[in-house]
Amino acid sequence: MTVGKRKVAVVGVALSDCGRVDDATPYALHAQAARRALADAGLDRSRIDGFASAGLGTLAPVEVADYLGLRPTWVDSTSVGGSTWEMMAAHAADAIGAGHANAVLLAYGSTARADVRAGRRTGTYAFGGRGPLQFEVPYGHTLIAKYAMAARRHMIEHGTTIEQLAEVAVQARANAALNPDAMFRTPLTVDEVMSGPVIADPFTKLHCCVRSDGGAAVLLAAEEYVRDCRTDPVWILGTGEHVSHASMTEWDDFTVTPAAVSGRLAFARAGVTPAEMDFAQLYDAFTYMTLVTLEDLGFCAKGEGGAYVEKGRLRVDGGDLPVNTDGGGLSAQHPGMRGLFLLVEAVRQLRGEAGTRQVRRRDGGLPRLGVASGTGGWFCSSGTVVLGRS
């Protein structure tokens, strides 16, 4: 059966309470974010016929959909780490475009911080020792160490400096200072980032993301639903996804990530170029992720990321390409698989709802185009979404 391709818009976005939330369950944060996203869109829950979620329950998204009182006829439980949500948005857009769903809700919630504080779980140092990982785990190769090794390889091959990596954290904090909901807003200096305790060489503490609680929700809908929504639509223009390796020993080049493929696909399908983007929301569990993703998406050449991030280029207030305008995972919030938060912030920027951190074009107008790119695992996966307003 051939079905005509429909345009797809993001019509509702929201965050749950974030940061330090000691009195809520992950299910409650899912529900809070979902209710707020529906209220943002102005659509009734009964119009949702698609649902996507990952990271909670034995049968996600079945358990979460049940908790939310949803009975969807289209579901997605893709789980590839931080890039999960960009891939889910791509899958949902394809399903809506093909007529298999009309309105798809993406929801996430986590009490990562509260669980550690309450002793319900420990920090995530590794993903286990089964499958291909069994050949790395005996050597104490933690999750953070994987990212640190990749950063060190980039420094060796391209001359990237620790000061340049620290600049990513400094500028993320500068953006967070404009976000009243960010966990950490006090300005940082490069020296402060570099003088912190070493977590995994070359990363000090402030090269690493915060641990927070929080949830997010995004509602996508077919173009004919837009007229019933209270918000201006933000259109899904192009998407791309890619997975490259299961273990570090299978990774051909530590300085090239799957975003090099997912980004190329997303921009080509959207019919735009990186140079046309007014901002970028990038997964930043560690400073190196921002730098190398900028290279791989085409904002600068391979090896030039260090120079690119210098001189305030990533800042909302005066930067050439504002990146992680809410403060990102390094300063705003990071409750686990943060990819959905990138989409929320991108939509708010395009709708002109970002308050004091609002990005403006050189002519003073609102941004027209933006990109959200998530990274999963240890640079194992990437999903990229190009968004634009009418």
In short:
This protein has twelve helices and eleven strands. It is an alpha/beta fold and 390 residues long.
List its salient traits:
Thiolase; Thiolase_C_2; nine-stranded mixed β-sheet; single chain; Thiolase C-terminal domain-containing protein; Thiolase-like; two-stranded antiparallel sheet
Summarize the helices and strands and which ones pair or pack.
Elements (H helix, E strand, L loop, with lengths): L7 E8 L10 H16 L8 E3 L9 H7 L5 E3 L7 H15 L4 E8 L1 H6 L25 H16 L3 H15 L13 H5 L3 E3 L2 E2 L9 E9 L11 E10 L15 H12 L9 E3 L4 H11 L7 H4 L19 H4 L7 H13 L17 E8 L4 E9 L1
Parallel strand pairs: 2-3, 2-4, 9-10
Antiparallel strand pairs: 1-7, 1-8, 4-7, 5-6, 8-11, 10-11
Helix pairs in contact: 6-9, 8-9
Structural commentary:
- With 390 residues, the chain is of the alpha/beta class.
- 32% of the residues lie in helices and 17% in strands.
- The chain contains twelve helices and eleven strands.
- The strands form two sheets. It has a nine-stranded mixed beta sheet.
- Strand 10 and strand 11 (381-389) form a beta hairpin.
- Helix 6 crosses helix 9 and helix 8 packs across helix 9.
- It is globular and about 55 Å long.
- The chain starts with 7 loop residues before the first strand and ends with a strand.
- The model has no long low-confidence stretch (mean pLDDT 94).
